[in-house]
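Example S7 (structure tokens).
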């Protein structure tokens, strides 16, 4: 199965101060760099204080040729019938490049900023119902009624359905038991944090078991922070430089959320106190062959573990996860964004796609 490589839309360069933390010329250069350097899709994130993801995603597809979008979308603010039409419209405008990442939300205080006071367990059930309605709206050619726990409507139908008759790819995240169970029931791609190969494999088997209960199959997406060097020694030298840089900036990052928002309790990345405590307690070690915990520890939980090594060593590791069923990877480094995209494109991404193609040819 072909591998998908995903980047993340940034609103401005990390080292530059710009009005509103929003730099359109930079974003255009960024997504066009993704488009030409081997990336297949870009995440357009959402929070209660960032720029809105839907118009941004539409703009991204207008300034790129092949780059698809994975639009973070939170149930609870837009009716699912309307959201289905919004995404179908984006899909046609972009030539079939739209995807949705259903974001249930993990921080009650942050969600309350937009007026959502729904308890977390209830939010997961709402997301499940929302995804079910989206799929029916995208595939139904006759009006239908719905009376659920969170949504009730009559005679719903969309004139426009997605380019793919089966609908848009639905991405899903979250680590709670409800999230895993509902991913198996609702998602096409489940996003997970890659830990050891053994632990990741066990998680994949668990989600697959939930999917099998509904006669479904799905694939998986994993985050791959990478620190690459021409030699292994150079990669590890750079890794320790990155850890020092992360440690120096962490306190500011934990309270600066962009757009002038400075309140650590609203962080969408981690539950701050819990994340700091867990990261501080974690030993600096290497998992399996080259998955290093040092970046997570230095950043107090804000940044995930990183694969460290030559392109060949990193791709060797990623292929182990691919064999488990991880067919989509977030690939990010730690350098200046535009240069980093280029570096990953000509090293890790190029080699990863070559290895996957070879593997698929051999399997065929």
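Recovered sequence:
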């Amino acid at each position: 199965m072909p591998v998908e490589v995903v980047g993340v839309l940034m609103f401005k360069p990390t080292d530059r101060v710009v009005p509103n933390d929003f730099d359109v010329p930079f974003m255009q250069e960024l997504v066009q760099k993704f488009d030409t350097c081997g990336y297949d899709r870009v995440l357009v994130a959402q929070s209660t204080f960032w720029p809105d993801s839907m118009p941004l995603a539409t703009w991204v597809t207008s300034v790129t040729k092949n780059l698809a979008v994975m639009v973070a979308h939170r149930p609870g603010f837009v009716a699912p019938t309307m959201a289905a039409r919004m995404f179908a419209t984006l899909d046609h405008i972009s030539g079939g490049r739209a995807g949705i990442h259903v974001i249930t939300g993990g921080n009650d205080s942050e969600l309350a900023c937009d007026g959502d006071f729904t308890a977390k367990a209830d939010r997961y059930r709402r997301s499940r119902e929302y995804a079910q309605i989206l799929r029916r709206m995208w595939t139904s050619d006759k009006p239908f009624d719905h009376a659920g726990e969170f949504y009730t409507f009559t005679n719903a139908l969309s004139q426009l359905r997605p380019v793919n008759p089966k609908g848009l790819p639905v991405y899903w995240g979250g680590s709670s038991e409800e999230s895993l169970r509902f991913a198996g029931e609702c998602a096409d791609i489940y996003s997970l944090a890659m830990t050891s190969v053994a632990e990741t494999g066990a998680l994949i088997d668990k989600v697959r078991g939930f999917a099998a209960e509904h006669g479904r199959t799905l694939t998986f997406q994993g985050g791959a922070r990478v620190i690459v060097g021409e030699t292994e020694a150079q990669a590890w030298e750079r890794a320790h430089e990155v850890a020092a840089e992360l440690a120096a900036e962490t306190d500011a990052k934990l309270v600066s959320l962009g757009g002038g928002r400075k309140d650590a309790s609203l962080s969408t990345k981690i539950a701050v106190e819990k994340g700091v405590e867990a990261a501080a307690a974690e030993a600096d070690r290497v998992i399996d062959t080259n998955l290093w915990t040092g970046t997570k520890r230095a950043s107090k939980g804000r940044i995930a573990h990183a694969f460290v090594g030559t392109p060949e060593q990193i791709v060797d590791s990623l292929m182990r996860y691919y064999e488990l069923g991880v067919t989509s990877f977030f690939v990010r480094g730690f350098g200046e964004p535009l240069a980093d995209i280029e570096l990953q494109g000509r090293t890790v991404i190029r080699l990863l796609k070559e290895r996957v193609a070879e593997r698929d040819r051999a399997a065929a």
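Notes on this example. The chain has a mean pLDDT of 92.
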